[in-house]
Amino acid sequence: MAINVLTAPRETPSPPPRGRRAPWTSPDGQPGYARPVLLAIAAVAAVLYAWNINHSQYHSFYADAVRSMTESWKAFVFGSFDPAGTITLDKLPGFLWPQALSARVFGFHPWALTLPQVVEGVLSVLVLYRVVRRWAGANAGLLAAAAFTLTPVAAGLFRTAVEDAAFTLLLLLAADAAQRAAHTARLRPLLLAGVWVGLAFQTKMLEAWAVLPALAAVYLLAAPTSLRRRVGHVALAGLVTVVVSASWMLAVTVTPAQDRPYVDGTTDNSAFSMVVGYNFLNRFSSVGMSAAQTGSVQAVRGGGGGGGHAGGAGADGGAGAGRGSHGGQGTQGSQGSQGSQGSPAQASSQGQGPGGWGGQGGGADDGGWTKMFGSQFAPQTGWLYPLAAVALLCGLAWRRREPRTDVLRAGYVLWGAWLGVFFLVFSAGSVGGHSYYMGVIAAPLAVLGGAGTVLLWRGFREGGARAWALPAAIAGTVAWSAYLAREFPTFLPWLAPAVIGLGVVALALLAAVALKRVTGRGFALAGLLAGVAAMLVAPGAWASSVLSSAYGNSGMGTVGPSGGGHGGGGRHASPKGSTAAMAALRAQYGGGGFGGSSEHLTAPEQALFDYLQAHRGGTRYLFAASSWSAASPFILATGEEVLPMGGFSGSAPSPTLAEFQQLVGKGELRYVLLGADRRGGGSGGGGESAGVTTTAQIQSWVRSACTQVPTTDVLGTAPAAAPAAGGGRADDGGVIGQQLYLCTHAG
User: Fold this and answer.
1) Are 648 and 351 in contact (CB under 8 A)?
2) What is the pTM of this model?
3) Element of type H or E holding 740
């Protein structure tokens, strides 16, 4: 007799175990097939996430920090960008701690930095199964785990060295703990949920708190205890969340400034300014608070209103493309150490603002409130929108008369609230091309899709009006999937017909059973299985594209085709310092420019490194760079102490002119690498529009007080002329648009 995997009762006890249970054997109370199927799903996830991991590439800026964190435990704790610990990242470092530990164990390699995300992805699949099984049964858990694994953005996210892999896992753990607390009214798991959210705060800052309404709602609604006790428990859990969330910021605050790195993104060296002002208020000015009052460098540079900013400092002193601190790249100008082609005004209006919650420049149009349904994000995340919507509505409506403590309804409240809050956040905010943000959207969609399929199947078997909810959900999901597939007609052209064909078969069988044209459970089950296949084949095909070298992922969590025949939605954006952007820049300069994202230096970089090593004279710093991107290749390849100026944006006052002169006067620094003089510009992070930043003051002083080092002394030959668009000048003694200076005094 065939086993109905969707209706096998989860409460049927298994025979008492004899001796040690085999790892592939299902625990007591679960169907015998549950554990083997789950292990198979986890294996598929591991393949998708780890495929070709040996060809992983560095996520520059983040990888620089990881390299620094492997050189020093002080840099590890504070999240220093550079090995010397002069300045932090422009966000909390928690998401990089697993990468740094992996690099300490396996060595500093691109795959070692990707491996933690793969592990976090497989754990996310297993945790998601556990939380759904406890709520809606093993069958719902298996469907949810499969749907999550086959969501394209998951296949992209968990092979990318960014924040959201750990963030998604930690929020799933929080949901698991909160749901257990709601079932038993026990305080301990609710406090544990607060700990998980606090740890998630260390990866994505205030975005982690967006899940709190969902966690609080499920406990306040369903916990089997008095209202007073429920409120008290939620308050205590909230306190734990705040304490764990603020732990790193408090540690930075109580550490004397001279004993820790400068906090990037701020003018006042405050971790709170970085988190609240730079990474939140600059993106969500609608909350009615001004980032100008928080010490954010963005506010100082002319915009606490959530707009974009002139991007990362280009080493040539020109205005860089507007870049988000989660990896956005402006649409105008090149990215990297040679600077950009666009003007500061263009970068400000077209570029992307810093991340945290995900901000794109205020002038950039990324779809507004419809972006989540557009061809950029929906094919990555939203194949199951119709199924999740029908499941949520039916789950709440069909269980509305149940007691307050009804477990099934509480689960729909939890996941519906989670999906709704994050959906609104991403719709209201600007997320640029950051597909990997959508991991926290993919999770509730998969959960609602898996649990909803089981719920709608039970309604179908009951008959009556409820029987038509399942066909409606399948029909809506099939139509939506076919529409999305047709937006990319050259990618898997068979996909839309296959989806439609499976959907027609499913609907025909289910309709025949519902109308009593045929009888027997076999027809109904065949219709259900065909419907499940119709709903999952399209996202599964997109997710499996990571197995092809023609697609892989973009570094933004995006997989599949680069663009549709009827619109956008492809891999067109680059992450902060992404390999693709850096490789393009190197190609533009014949492979000789600086600012690459490789563990090996280019020939000019190696020549410069050898020269500096031979002439540094025992100084602490190998050299000072006018931007993080100019320092990046040397930190990645050598782990040497290179002094970056201005932080990510180029506007952080680190170091100040007086501090810089003191380093020169004390003999800790001799060489400085600057870009071509723009006459009136600041660093690459500001240009004319940024005013006089501390980095601009330092560059001006270096050009007037220090001695140019002839290019022939460094390279042994005169460089080829740099392209005019790059701003480099072959006749100014520069090294591919950059000039080395020797500073021997602080006069």
Assistant:
1) no
2) 0.83
3) strand 738-742
